[in-house]
Amino acid sequence: MLDSHEVLARYLLGDLSDPERERLEKEYFTNDGAWESLIAVENELIDSYIRGRLSDRQQKQFQQYFLQSPRRRERFEFDRLLMDPTLRQTPEAASPSPTERKLRASWLGIFKRIPAPQMLTAAIILMLAAGAFLAFQNHRLTVQLQRMQSEQTTLQTEIRNLRESATHSSSPQQEQANEILGITQIPVISILLEPGNLRAAGSGNVHQLPRLTMPASIVLALDLARDEYPLYTIKLQTADGHAVREVISQRSQPIEGGGRAVLLKFPSAVLPKGDYIAWLFGEAGNRKLQSIDSYVFSVVE
Amino acid sequence: MIKSGQDLDGVDLKQFLARLHQDEGQAWLEYDKLRQKLVMFFEPHFEAPELAEEVLDRIAKKSNSFEIRNVVEFAFGVARNLRKETFHNAPSLVYLVNEEQLTSASGNPEMDFLDSSDIARKRVCFQRCLQQLTPSDQQLILNYYPPDDENLESRRQRLAETAGMSWGTLRTKVVRLRSRLAECCTQCYLQGITKPKMGKHHKEQS
Question: What is the DSSP letter of A196?
């Protein structure tokens, strides 16, 4: 039996018990109908999130669980494009369908059979109708243009406000705004991390970072044993697998005392107390990622 | 560290495909589908694609004399074991963290994602890939996903009626169209702005 939309949505939002989840997983592995339903519900979930149709609880689960997957993030972005009105064209206007071509041909046939005086009257009526249509379209476009100009002004005001508030603030969001806008008045703290492995996390032999109470920018310098790639990707996550930040296409930088490192910069507020792993990947051709190493560190009180 | 399954040698892969289907083209379709199911199984773990490859790799490396009655069910078993191994070994330490802050750098994953992406390029890819669908398919998918939210369900119902399909058939067709379009967009984005082609294994089957 196929699962209901609600059960499939709960699975995708990480809201099923282990036995329920395993039963559903076995079902979609072995039943293609169940698999297609799951994909459809995944699409609908993204659609509903974008349209603001999820409950508060679902919205939170969507952000905290569902969107952790890079593939789903890709899907999410794709759906935003799909629903973006500015990217829409009317393909039927460019190339009529066979039915429309037949319809047009039959209209032309009718015109050919109409006598000349009636044709003139028909032409005048058509011209009046076309004029009215063009006037309506013109009005619609003017309104649209005015709305776009108004939106642009609002956006510019928002950017100005953001810049102003960023210079007088210290909340995580405003730290983020500082970073985005290139305002670097806050202190920058750099830490060099040497590659380690996951087991080191339990052994006590871990880089420790004091949790900062003041706003600051943290720069993690991931020490490279060999600088073999032109570009690198860094994925930072908590020890229990939650993605914190991902940076792609970074070049290595020379570091003090020789050697090279790949840098990851972010506001200090991003990292509360806990253990973290930074995964380093080299970007080969076609942006294919090759795993290089992991760097473990803790943020302590 | 999870090993990527890309190092499968040709013989292993050929044997694996033969286990999936006698016809090579159909076997590739089955392989793609199994891989997608495996990725879904491991999500939202960020290494889900690598874990899926690892499962495929382990099955492919089984010798021909090893009898597998149902490859998909077998893959499910291997995936379940791998999930236990991976999740048992890696996060043996459990930390209480403020998840709201950790969801993303700014607390808004949508903004983070948009910030980190080359949106302009993706928009160009989207338009190019959309153009590769037939005009009627373009119209169908755009009408199924309208930008506004008004009477969405009844509009979709009407769309199915206009297209002469049942609601279920329309939904399946849209899912397939969307997958093709999404795949084309991904290829286009990764290749740079060159002419992308719709996946050869994903011809419309409706």
Answer: B
Cis peptide before A91 (omega within 30 of 0): no
Sorted by sequence, the CB contacts under 8 Å of residue A113 that are 6+ apart come out as none
Question: How many Å apart are CA A276 and CA A242, to the nearest integer?
Answer: 9
pTM: 0.51
DSSP secondary structure letters along A252-286: PEE-TTS-EEEEEEEEGGG--SEEEEEEEEEE-GG
Q: Above 0.90 for ipTM, yes or no?
A: no
For residue B183, the one-letter residue type is: E
Residue A222, amino acid: L
Write out residues 257-296 of A within 8 Å (CB-CB) of B.
Answer: 266-267, 269-270, 272-275, 286-287, 291, 294
Q: Do B127 and A40 make contact, defined as CB atoms within 8 angstroms? A: no
CA–CA gap between residue A116 and residue A224 (Å, rounded): 85
pLDDT digits (tens, 9 = 90+) for B119-176: 677 788 888 898 999 999 998 998 898 888 778 888 888 899 988 888 888 888 898 8
Nearest CA in chain B to A13: B44
